[in-house]
Structure formats: structure tokens, C-alpha cells
Fold these 2 entries.
Entry 1:
Amino acid sequence: MLSNACQYAIRAILYLGIQTDENNKIGVKQISEDLETPQPFLAKLLQQLTKTNLVSSTKGPNGGFYLSEKDTKNSVWDVIKTIDGTSKFDSCFLGLSKCTDETPCPVHFIVSPFKEKLLNSFRDKTIEQYVIEIQQTGKIISLKDFDILKN
Amino acid sequence: MLSNACQYAIRAILYLGIQTDENNKIGVKQISEDLETPQPFLAKLLQQLTKTNLVSSTKGPNGGFYLSEKDTKNSVWDVIKTIDGTSKFDSCFLGLSKCTDETPCPVHFIVSPFKEKLLNSFRDKTIEQYVIEIQQTGKIISLKDFDILKN
DNA sequence: CTAAAAAAAGATTTTTTAGTCTTTAAATAA
DNA sequence: TTATTTAAAGACTAAAAAATCTTTTTTTAG
Ligand code: FES
Ligand code: FES
């Protein structure tokens, strides 16, 4: 459904929400190890997210990536928009040119409510809220049994 | 969500359900024109669907592709399984290795119910049922305003 | 029996997505 | 001030998906 790039990006931003703030930055090397994503590829993605102000970064010793207070107010939807664009959520499941209730394809009324609700969920919930939920319920963000609640 | 290949395949099988039977076969050229899909690519897909017994075909003059009575009893899910495989419906939205209620990623409980219900819809409805619904409600199967209820 | 029509098979090309590598710029600690 | 650390930038390569082209086989109408 989402591209690899977008999946990595979402996991990374949630990771940053959990692990970092202005005084606790983490380098791309560690992030990609913890999340088990290809390092240079993730670096590109983080650069992109930095350029669109979804994550923050500083260079040099003790530098790295982090989420500022403000950054945590963004949504997963913001990440999806930046990396994959909106098309997957507003285009027809069967690839037809228009996806509206007036020009429904044979699966439109099956698929459409899902897309709608999914989009709302991703748009209305902040990274901060996700982070709280992850910390309280111990949800998983990495491929291996990386316990998000360690340290 | 689905690959181009799979979208074309689903549209094609519904088209065949509407337009063809044992005595009314249609060649790939016409099908691809009506559905506005790349011709040789669609040909490949129809071959694949023929090999897995989801559509029928005969060679030679007046030959072409068609759905037999039996073929219409298959489901859209059968097509998806053949062309794209099941992974999109049973793997994690964030690309983690396991997608279960016991090992949920941060979006699992948002996404999972959708996938489940969507899968059921595609699995429990036959091509035949889709065709009836399309004919009754005039749903769209092509990019342009190809009126499925013509002829 | 032959020519034409159509699918089948499979090799090839193009485009997109994924991923890597190398160089440059900034920050900071010593 | 200088060496080191880290992100930024951009060129590059690899793999997968999408699409095309070419040849072969089957069918059947004449
Ligand atoms: S028209 Fe196909 S999903 Fe809406
Ligand atoms: S674990 Fe991620 S969607 Fe189920």
C-alpha cells in the first residue's frame, strides 16, 4: 500500500518522537540500526522530512535528528503527503480516472468508506498522540523485537 | 494499492463477464481498446488468467477470450491472488514482519479491520454477482465514458 | 489443403522505485 | 584554530514493475 520509503519515514518519525527532543538527538546510523532500515536510504528520507519541516536536525558532534515540540504536533498524514503524495487515498482502486460517488467503479462503495476513514485517522492524530499511545500500550515500530520502552 | 496489472485484470474479467460467453468471444485488441489498457500488457495478463482457469479462450478466427458459466463463479479475490498475491492483505501497513493483534504496530488497529472487511468483500462476491450489480446500477469499468450497458 | 486470424510464449525495452556511494558543508569539542 | 563528527547534496547503481516486440502455435473459414 504505502511505498517502502513512506513506511520507513513513518516509523522513523515515530521513533524520533519516542527517543528524541531538542537535547537528545540521534544520528542516522543508530536510527537505521534500531529500525532495521537501509541506512543511506533512510538518510535521504530524513533529509526530505527536514526540508519540509517535519523533523529537525543539527550537524556536527552531538548533532543528529530529533523532533522539536512543534514537530510532534504534525500528523502521520503530513509524512504520507511528503513522501508518497495523496494519490493513494484519493484515486480509484481500479485505476479509473475519477473516484466519486457519482462515477463509481464496481468496488467503489466497498473501498471508499475505508479510504475515507483511514485518511481521517491519519490526519486527526498527532505524532505526539501516537507516541503516548505507543508508550502506554507497547506497540511495535521495528522489525525485530526492539523494545521501544527500553533505556 | 493494487498493481496496474491487477487493476487491469479485474476490469478485464468484469468486462468479460458482461460482454462474453461461450458463443461470444472477444479478442484482446477490442478489450484493450474498450478498457483503455495497454494492449500487449493486457494480453499477458489474460494469458495468465487463462492458465489459472479464471478466464477461457480459443485461438483462431472467431476465437478470443470469454468467461464460461463456471468462470463467472470465481471471485475478484481469485484474480488478486493470481496477479498480485495475498501479501497486500496480510502484511503490515508499516512493513513490519508480523501483522497480528498480538504484535501490533502503531497503526495496526486502524488499518487491520479495513483489510479484513475488504478481503471478505472481494472473496465472498462472485464475478457473476458483480456483473448483475454493474448492469443494474450502471457502474463504470473504463477510463473514458464507456457505457457498459451499450450494445 | 491453405491462408488468415487469433492466442501463447518468451525475449526485450522502458520507467519507476529502491538503494548506494562520494563529496561537501556545518557544528562543536578540544 | 583545527580535527572530528554529523547532516546535506547529488551522482550513481540495482531491482522491480510496466510495457512492448517478435516468433510460434492453434484454429477455422474458404
Ligand atoms: S471509483 Fe473506483 S474506488 Fe472510487
Ligand atoms: S502490525 Fe502493522 S498493520 Fe498490523
Entry 2:
Amino acid sequence: MRLDNMLLAEGVSGPEKGGGSAAAAAAAAASGGSSDNSIEHSDYRAKLTQIRQIYHTELEKYEQACNEFTTHVMNLLREQSRTRPISPKEIERMVGIIHRKFSSIQMQLKQSTCEAVMILRSRFLDARRKRRNFSKQATEILNEYFYSHLSNPYPSEEAKEELAKKCSITVSQVSNWFGNKRIRYKKNIGKFQEEANLYAAKTAVTAAHAVAAAVQNNQTNSPTTPNSGSSGSFNLPNSGDMFMNMQSLNGDSYQGSQVGANVQSQVDTLRHVINQTGGYNDGLGGNSLYSPHNLNANGGWQDATTPSSVTSPTEGPGSVHSDTSN
DNA sequence: GGCTATGATTCGCG
DNA sequence: CGCGAATCATAGCC
């Protein structure tokens, strides 16, 4: 019945140890997915093997006991047959009773084995149980990308792969990370300000000089439209660089012509840097070009359409307590 | 032990 | 299908 099927599927019953491990591996692979983490799987397999061994030894024991008991009863009946007549029917009936009893015991064994397997599966296959924080290096790389693409923190499939490779995590983990990051950043920009500054400064070191000229040009050329500088509306137009959109690839592989494409993101970087240098932190007044507050206001990707519960418990994101280090 | 940070999952939406 | 939002469950810190 069903128990049998399940045990067979899990590689517990069925072929013995020789092919058993293969069956177990197949089961693990089938349920777990790809050959992602061999460590987990080998662990899982080991545990499964253990269960299988217990199951088989118990099963054997029961069978043996059943046989012994049957022969014992038979002997008893034979002895009794000397004193009273015993029909073959009666013997058959006795044997039947014994077998039924033992098979019900076997049933219980199977059931408990199934339970054990289920627990094992939930323990090992539920990824949430084995959550591990990414390495410091990995989060650093991810953060670098995130903050240097703050205007559009949606890495392309290629970029995700690249990041995944760099961080030695899977692409879906990268997606998860960015999903979490975006939402958590948006939820409380103030909390991430420090981090943003940190990474912005870090990337700025490498990127700023490459783009600074371009940005300055951009700004000096259009002093009348500060909003264009604020670049808040990343989600939309971005007109220019949308067409060239090549900001992905490696995040910082710019070949001459790409500079334009990267300007947008670099503006973010610079904004943070400027912020850090304490230039505009008092901009709360309203015309602060680069305050994240402003950024928030003009509907970027983090356009918080639901200000309801946010009401930043901390000070507003605008009040960046820049450590006035300069 | 409670708290926060964080990775993963789930669900609804377009 | 990718994303946002809510949620779960563990890690790590005090």
C-alpha cells in the first residue's frame, strides 16, 4: 500500500545496500533539486542509509521471529496431536493468525520508518532550516553593486550570474538578496544611510575619477534644472541611458562609450559621497538636491507609496548625522 | 532568553 | 516570470 510505495520511493525498502545508495541518491536528487550542495546531500544520504539499515535489520528480525514462532507453535500442535486429534484446518488457522499479527507489527515498523524519513526530509530539505549568512566578502560585493546601482538596483540576469559567481552563491540567492535588500532599504532608508555612504565612498574611489568629469559636465551644463541632477526618477525615463542600458555586465566594466550609461548610477555614488562630506545634510529645508529625502519624494523605485506605517522612528532620512569628518 | 539581522519562502499582482 | 510585501525561521549578538 502507500507506505510501501513511499519507502520504495525513498530507497528505504527495495534494493539492498548495493543499489540502495543509488536509489537514495536518486531520491535525494529528485526531491532536493539540482546537485547544488553536495555536502547537505551526502549528509542526508548518510542519515537515510542509517534509517534504511535499521529498517532492514528490524524487518529481518521480525521475519525470523515470525518463523521461529510459527515452527514453535507447530511443534506444540504436533505434540498435542498425540493426545487429541488436530485437523489441518486448525493448524492453518493458527499459522494465519500468527502471520497476521506479525504483518501488523511490520506495518508499524514501516510507518515509523516513514515518519523518520519525513522528519529527515523536513530537516534537510527545508532550506530555511539551514540558513547560513553569506560570507562577509559576499555581502560586501553585493552591497557594492547595490549601492553603486542605487538608481536601478535590478541586476540583469547576466549581472546576477556574475555576482553569484563572485560571491560563490546561486543566482536565486542573488535574486533573494536583492529582493530583500530593496525592500528593506526602502522601508528604512535612514537605517541604511551609513552603509550607503560607506559603499558609495568605496566604489567612488574606483569610479569617481572615471566619471567625475562627465557628471560635473552634466551638472554645470544644466544648473537650472536641479531635479535632473537629483535623478530621483530612475524608474522611468532616464531617457538617455535607457537605450544604452549596459550598466550591468560587471558593474564597472566601462569601455569608453559606456561612460554615459554609467553616469546615472555614478550620480548616486557621488550623491552619497557628497552627503558624506557633509555638504547637503541640512538640506531638509526642501531644496536639497541630494538628500535622500528628496530622492524619496520624487518617486524613484523606492517611491514609498505607503507611508502609513513607516513613519521612520528614527530621524528622517534627511537628517543624516554625517560625522562631519572633514 | 530576548532581540535584531538576514536568508528563504509564499502569495498576489501585472 | 519577476517583483514587492509579508512572513517564516534561523543566526548571531547582548
